[in-house]
Amino acid sequence: MITELACGAAALVLYLNTLDADFCYDDSRAIKTNQDLLPETPWRNVFYDDFWGTLLTHSGSHKSYRPLCTLSFRLNYALAGLEPWGYHLVNVCLHGIVTGLFTTMCRPLLGGGPWSLVAGLLFAAHPVHTEAVAGVVGRADVGAGLFFLLSLLCYSHHCALRWRGPRSGRAWLWLLGSVGAAAGAMLWKEQGVTVLGVSAVYDLFIFHRFQLPQLYRKNAPLLISLSLLAGSGVGLLAARVYWMGNKPPNFSNSDNPAADSPHLLTRTLTFLHLPAANFWLLLCPDRLSFDWSMDALPLLRTFADWRNFQSLAFYAGLLFLVWYGLRGSPIVEKREANGKSHVTNGKSLTNGHCHHLHTDLGSPGEPGPTKNGTQNGTAKVHHNAPWDSLPPTGNLLMFFLALLTLPFLPATNLLFYVGFVVAERVLYIPSMGFCMLVTVGLRSLYVAVRSRRHRTLLLCSTVGLVLLYGAKTALRNRDWQSEETLYRSGIRVNPAKAWGNLGNVLKNQGKMAEAEGAYRNALHFRGNMADMLYNLGLLLQENDRFSEALRYYKLAIASRPTLASAYLNTGIILTSQGDVEEAKRTFLTCSQIPDENLKDPHAHKSSVTSCLYNLGKLLHEQGQQEVPLSKAPSPHTAPWAPVMAAHCSHRVMG
């Protein structure tokens, strides 16, 4: 318990400097403008809308169904309104709880000694978690991680009770609890449902100690458990697909450029490289960014791209670890068997550290046989329950690899397209498997080396790694203090998006000249961004530079013909310049744009309504009161009001 509390406390301390942070990036749309958080909105709407407050069945919804996370935001709003510190406090506390549960799960896998502490501290301090913890919308990932671990711990209890007696009702209640927690994890974020697959791997490789050379005889309780896991997974996924209208979401090409590429080779090489790129963020989290869309990760177009070697190295290493895990670890086992060791209850104690000598436990549904005595110098082994000994290194590798890869699988773009190429907060749950892999590697090195000096050096390196991760996390948290610091930190990774969003911040601060420079920098890197073209036009219009503004509005419309706010402000400028007929045509065109496949249909409808109002006003002034309109204007819409378009700050499926 002390180890768990220490790791949880470390997680809390590392993120204390986020409590005074502001809302940043996606927080605005998910919280500040989300109608589902308001008290006057029926709470039932949360279960029919996506994460951003758009109806799930609407064509513009990106289908991110996370009602438990949205309900937690609504509770925050009810308690403290839009005060950011309350939202950040909940995120930090959740991360501390998840870290404590993660350390609890590590104890039976890595032992109760220092190694579970190392794994817990690595998870608490890993810099890739900053987006999930310091960014309020990252609560979806942290909450999913909490229920993910609860589901896994429930399943481990199910396995233990099932071993004692397959007919035990309590065992199947724990399985029901595991499935319920998996459903909860999915309602926090989509990838949470993958815990069912991780649980199956746990049953096979951790509880049953499965290895490739051995063949188990028929085991009905195991087959029943695995079948129930598979059936539950299929049922939960089917229910989610049905609830979102049986339609996949639509994404813009800037969110996922590879998916929009017409070349099969480009799509294949890029998508195969994405897991390697994400793994590198776990291994060396030095180059982090709030957004990886657009050209932040350039497409791989040819075999000559050097990043293909990085992909090959990643998959070669992954396949080697899988082979090693399935075949066992004969070199390490031989070293442990021939070293100075003794075994108690299946645990090999070598120089004060606990390691498992693999033996055949027979059918886990029955108590294993007891063997006493020593043959040919072999240590005495007592076969008791599977949890009486630490799993072999090979079996641990298989489970840790499953924990690393299965939760990340939905984000790979290998099964279906998603609205991003890299998203750091998606790595929150997979990082659990990474931290365990690093820890078991350090433990194996500690066992392999004999020199006290080398072991001391290894321990010092481990402490140094934890401190380095912690320092990087504390520094990265400062980037998330405000939108300005966040966007400035992202310029080296995604200059187009970072400069564009920074321009919005500077404009709100009244720094018009700097904002204009930021917009032009963004367009220098990516000249067809409709939102940036519109925002630059709006800035110029507000500074009475109407001719320039009109030019950028027309460029924005050419880039995105459905950008209603650009039509609205174009019509306003044309009217002020006396070109009434062209203004009327512009307003009419805007009024006929449907709201299908749009990220923010509410803002679109507001702009369309304003266009209709202004068109009606022009017709009234010309004495054309009887001209029919397709829609009635809203009496609450102010005439001639410029409408701010989306600031290009939203990333889907993040």
TrEMBL record:
Biochemical pathway: Protein modification; protein glycosylation
Record-annotated DUF1736 domain positions: 246-318
Highest taxon of the lineage: Eukaryota
GO molecular function: dolichyl-phosphate-mannose-protein mannosyltransferase activity
Intervals holding TPR repeats: 496-529, 530-563
Transmembrane regions: 109-128, 140-159, 171-188, 194-210, 222-243, 309-326, 396-420, 426-449
Keywords: Endoplasmic reticulum, Membrane, Repeat, Signal, TPR repeat, Transferase, Transmembrane, Transmembrane helix
Signal peptide per UniProt: 1-21
Enzyme kind, highest EC tier: transferase
GO cellular component, one term: endoplasmic reticulum membrane
Region of interest: Disordered: 359-381
Mode of membrane association: Multi-pass membrane protein
The keyword Aminoacyl-tRNA synthetase is annotated on this UniProt entry: no
Listed EC numbers: 2.4.1.109
Stored PROSITE patterns: TPR
Protein name: dolichyl-phosphate-mannose--protein mannosyltransferase
Presence of the UniProt keyword Transmembrane helix in the record: yes
Protein family: Belongs to the TMTC family.
Lineage: Eukaryota, Metazoa, Chordata, Craniata, Vertebrata
Organism of provenance: Denticeps clupeoides (denticle herring)
SMART domains tied to this protein: TPR
Gene name of this polypeptide: LOC114764256
Family matches, as SUPFAM superfamilies: TPR-like
Subcellular location as annotated: Endoplasmic reticulum; Membrane
